[in-house]
Task: inverse folding
């Protein structure tokens, strides 16, 4: 067991932290007032080589590991979860394509987007107003018409929707089969693709989510990713891999909350000494630090498993719900430690608290993550031998 980073990983991590310190942390508060896509910062991140890390080298990308992605997500999340989401969203949008598309498809549809001077974006289009966690409820339809598919439907909460040039769209090709009839398509921005309502959010204001409407949009047959009916499987495989990215952003938020609270606890004096010297504050800081450490380890382990194509559903769920809960708890504790100052918008922790909440919701709510993890635990227990043998006869007491 070795927790050290390779030279390349350490250099990437340091580059991302330096980028955050120079371009995100000092600007995030002011940019948030604009409540818009942070184009200038994202452009700089693209030029620094911090985007599209998972695209294979054969398709023009750097071909880095998911573990490497988590370093960038954590570092940028430390500066601003909204900007981190804007920068790293292509990881989610293009992940189904990396999983299910051929290299020829990636070269045709993705490579042109990641090799231009300015960044181009993808939109991950799964969620609908009546189909969130229940992917089987997707109402968007894709009907075969000769060598083309005609797509109709409306997606919502699509990150980078207005900025996207390519949409990864989950649509039903056989509605009667429910989730088994779900397929996934690459849909370039074209006639019939429209941006609908842009969401007004409580936090993560440096990230844009919108409706994306598809009205009689025609795409050629080679826009189908994998085979018809494989959409649900590809979606689940995608989320298994990308949950670590959300957990990494959450870890960054949790670390930032700890750092801000500790800094304040050192300089704020009451009753003749820094408040950090009081046991009540010291214990809070210790708990916050433990959450960060545990979130980081869970996140990197989930990424490590995914990079090796090992079973990761349970562990990626652990990472996502634990890290995002840690971010929310740490942000709340930071506000409490800073007291009245923590509640003021001039200071950073109220923003951390608003940003952290969304981390518990998007890419699968934490309740859904617990369902996934709990189901895996029950499945694993069927043939579990603890060494203590007991038979249950249906009564209150077991029979030994």
Result:
């Amino acid at each position: 067991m070795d927790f050290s980073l390779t030279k390349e990983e350490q250099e990437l991590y340091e580059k991302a932290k330096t980028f955050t310190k120079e371009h995100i942390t000092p600007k995030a508060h002011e940019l948030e007032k604009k409540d818009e896509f942070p184009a200038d910062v994202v452009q700089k991140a693209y030029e620094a080589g911090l985007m599209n890390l998972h695209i294979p080298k054969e398709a023009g990308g750097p071909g880095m590991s998911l573990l490497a992605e988590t370093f960038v997500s954590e570092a940028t999340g430390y500066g601003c979860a909204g900007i981190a989401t804007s920068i790293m969203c292509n990881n989610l949008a293009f992940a189904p394509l990396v999983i299910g598309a051929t290299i020829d498809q990636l070269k045709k549809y993705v490579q042109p987007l990641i090799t231009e001077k300015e960044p181009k974006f993808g939109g991950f289009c799964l969620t609908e107003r009546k189909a969130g966690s229940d992917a089987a409820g997707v109402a968007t339809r894709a009907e075969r018409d000769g060598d083309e598919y005609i797509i109709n439907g409306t997606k919502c909460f699509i990150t980078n929707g207005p900025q996207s040039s390519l949409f990864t769209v989950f649509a039903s090709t056989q509605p009667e089969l429910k989730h088994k009839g779900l397929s996934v398509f690459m849909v370039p921005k074209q006639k019939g693709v429209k941006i609908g309502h842009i969401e007004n959010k409580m936090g993560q204001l440096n990230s844009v989510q919108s409706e994306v409407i598809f009205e009689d949009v025609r795409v050629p047959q080679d826009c189908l990713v994998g085979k018809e009916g494989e959409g649900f499987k590809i979606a689940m495989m995608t989320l298994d891999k990308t949950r670590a990215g959300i957990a990494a952003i959450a870890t960054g938020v949790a670390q930032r909350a700890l750092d801000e609270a500790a800094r304040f606890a050192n300089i704020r004096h009451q009753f003749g000494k820094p408040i950090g010297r009081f046991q009540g504050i010291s214990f809070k800081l210790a708990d916050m630090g433990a959450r960060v450490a545990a979130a980081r380890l869970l996140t990197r382990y989930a990424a490590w498993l995914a990079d090796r194509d090992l079973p990761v559903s349970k562990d990626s769920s652990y990472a996502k719900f634990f890290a995002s809960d840690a971010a929310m708890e740490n942000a709340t504790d930071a506000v409490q430690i800073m007291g009245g100052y923590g509640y003021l918008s001039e200071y950073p922790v109220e923003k951390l608290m608003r940003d952290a909440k969304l981390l518990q919701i998007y890419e699968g709510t934490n309740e859904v993550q617990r369902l996934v993890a709990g189901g895996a635990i029950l499945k694993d227990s069927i043939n579990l031998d603890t060494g203590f043998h007991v038979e249950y006869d249906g009564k209150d007491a077991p029979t030994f």
